[in-house]
Amino acid sequence: MSLGEYTFSFPIWVEFGNGKSERAGEVIDAKGWESALVVTDRGIRTAGILDGVESSLEAEGIEYEVYDEIEPNPTTAMVHDALETLNAGDFDVVVAVGGGSVIDTAKCATLLKTNSGELSEYEVNVPEDVTAGSIENHPHPLITIPTTAGTGSEVDYWAVITAPDREFKMAIGQPPLYPDGPYLGAEISLVDPELTASLPPRQTAATGFDAFSHALENHVAAGAPELVKPYTKHVMGLVPEHLPDAYETGDMEAREQMLYGSHMAGFCENFAGFGAVHSLAEVTGGMYPEIPHGEAIAVFTPPVMRYNLEEYPARYAEVAEAMGLDTDGLSDVEAAREAVEAVEALIDEVDLPSSLSELDVDEDDLPEIAEKSLETIEIHDNPRDADAEDLLGVARDAY
């Protein structure tokens, strides 16, 4: 079997381990930067999660300002507000401390700091948009410090920002298209499991399942390179093993494993696509911004698996194997169905919603959700082709 072709570029300096967030000051000083804008949200600041980062900046004499106005499911207005703060000061680097919402906002603010135009001009909806090279200049320097174990945004080349006028989550992103080419993302990421210690159980469950979904969709995606599959398989085994403990007890060893899994899945996102799970979940989140992303992901994952396995059972049989299920003597279809049941059991074990009705989605909105999902970049990597009627069927299954 041919391994096909792929291009590998990962220009981000990563440090993983307990206490690594307190290296922020040393790392900034080593780069010769003297001032920083710390981007975060009020909850993180109030919880004291920022304290170690601030102490490290002060210890190295780094001047800094904290911007803590980020909210869940960030909008274009939030990006521009953060950009105004960035433009108002003479900051050498942005330090994003938070979950996906904080990091994605910081990514887009640093993008617009050095590239002209509106954020919508950098939206990607089809593969050709990604390779068009809309990001011409390297974004302003960015350091990412994740506080949730789920999105992997600290190390990927993507961001998701809601355009309220369209009720649509825009995908913004670009990998390096040539050696040393500009990309959307961090120069440095400090990945510190200790920062996830105070994450509430429900958010632990939702973000943790999001990490699982990244590995799942990356693994079965159309054209997924063999390069990512050892990583995706590992994450699909790791999350079911450790997420229940992280959710139920907050055990730090389990949290460390979950952040590692999230981080590894974020790496895979740069080299493999997603699919209908993320298409449908992000469209639903754009129309219902109060729904946490990971919860929408949980609702759509089993129905999309059922739809896709009809044509690609072998890929989902690999999911069953990765999850540690006993597939001896089973056909690919039987093993694939076992994988769906195991995913449903995981969702139930960590008390995530299993239907759109639980999320108070209006059934009359399902056709619009299906139609809008065809406008997303993620749908192009779904292993099985799907039109609006197909996606409506999946959405009804999720209801």
CATH architecture descriptor name of the largest domain: Up-down Bundle
How far is it from the N-terminal to the C-terminal residue, by CA? 40 Å
Uncertain stretches: none
How much helix is in the residues? 40-55%
Q: What would your notes on this structure say?
A:
The protein is of the alpha/beta class. Strand 6 and strand 7 form a beta hairpin. Helix 4 packs across helix 5, helix 7 packs antiparallel against helix 8 and helix 14 packs across helix 15.
Give the structure's gist in a few sentences:
The chain is α/β, with parallel strands linked by helices and 399 residues long. It has helices at residues 24-30, 42-46, 51-59, 76-88, 100-114, 127-131, 201-220, 229-248, 252-269, 276-287, 293-309, 313-322, 332-349, 366-373, 388-398, and strands spanning 13-16, 35-39, 63-67, 93-98, 142-146, 158-163, 168-173, 188-191.
